[in-house]
Design a protein that fits this description.
- The two termini are about 25 Å apart.
- This protein has two domains: about 150 residues, HAD superfamily/HAD-like (Rossmann fold); about 60 residues, no CATH class.
- The longest helix has 19 residues.
- The chain has a six-stranded parallel sheet, with helices on both faces.
- It is an alpha/beta fold and about 230 residues long.
- GO terms for molecular function: phosphoglycolate phosphatase activity.
- Pfam families: Hydrolase (PF00702).
- This is Haloacid dehalogenase.
Length: about 230
């Protein structure tokens, strides 16, 4: 895929300076096509049937509801959305779980990190029920020293206070920690806290164009972090 931007900031670091690797899940390790399709197409279809309204009207109403809680814990809370929309959101996710997939080169990257004895943590805003569905489907959970949901911390990753609480839980050194995420607001909050190595995933969905960050080093695939130059 072609990027709409002319310049890409490439990662430039030495793995010897990193002890801990924090990885987001949706869009970073897993193809965000599942989430985009689910919330933008599949849920509106069922919402339109429930309320007997055109699907475009349903989509417009839902987008408004989504924006109201964007960047908060409610956005990823399946119980919240089941109650708010009158739909069984976990059941709907299970019906199309065949769309859940791991991005290319993710497993190779996890092997690379473990081979160099890095601490690996999965850090996600995803609700615990969503996490369970996706780990059951992909089996990536076994690679991590620990998996932390934002609901366990009590704040969304977009809140700089999240990282302070997370550090208290995991005991990492921010100056020797890498975070990879597909959301710039998350990287900005981590930067404010002092996490040194920040990587923007510019290809969160296999179905959408690559979009590099103007501020953070960007990658399309994790193989870019395991090249000889970064070994």
């Amino acid at each position: 895929m072609m990027s709409t931007q002319t310049e890409k900031i490439s990662p430039d670091f030495d793995w010897k300076d990193i002890d801990t690797v924090l990885l987001d899940m949706d869009g970073t390790l897993l193809d965000k096509h599942f989430d985009d399709y689910f919330w933008e197409q599949y849920v509106p279809e069922h919402y339109s049937l429930l309320h007997n309204i055109p699907i475009e009207q349903a989509r417009e109403e839902l987008l408004g509801k989504y924006r109201e809680v964007e960047n908060t814990l409610d956005w990823t809370d399946l119980n919240y959305w089941s109650e708010k929309l009158g739909l069984d959101i976990p059941e709907l996710k299970l019906r199309i779980n065949h769309l859940i997939g791991v991005h290319p080169y993710v497993i190779e990257f996890l092997e690379f990190c473990l081979g160099r004895r890095k601490k690996l943590y999965l850090i996600t805003n995803a609700h615990s029920r969503t996490l369970s569905i996706k780990l059951d489907k992909t089996a990536i959970g076994a690679w991590f020293d620990r998996i932390v949901c934002a609901e366990e911390v009590g704040l969304a990753k977009e809140d700089p206070r999240f990282w302070e609480k997370l550090q208290g839980m995991l005991g990492f050194d921010p100056k020797r920690t890498m975070l990879a995420d597909d959301t710039e607001k998350v990287l900005e909050s981590a930067e404010k806290y002092g996490i040194r190595y920040l990587i923007y995933v510019a290809r969160p969905s296999s179905r959408k164009p690559v979009q590099y960050s103007d501020h953070f080093p960007s990658i399309e695939f994790f193989k870019e972090l395991i090249s000889p130059a970064n070994d």
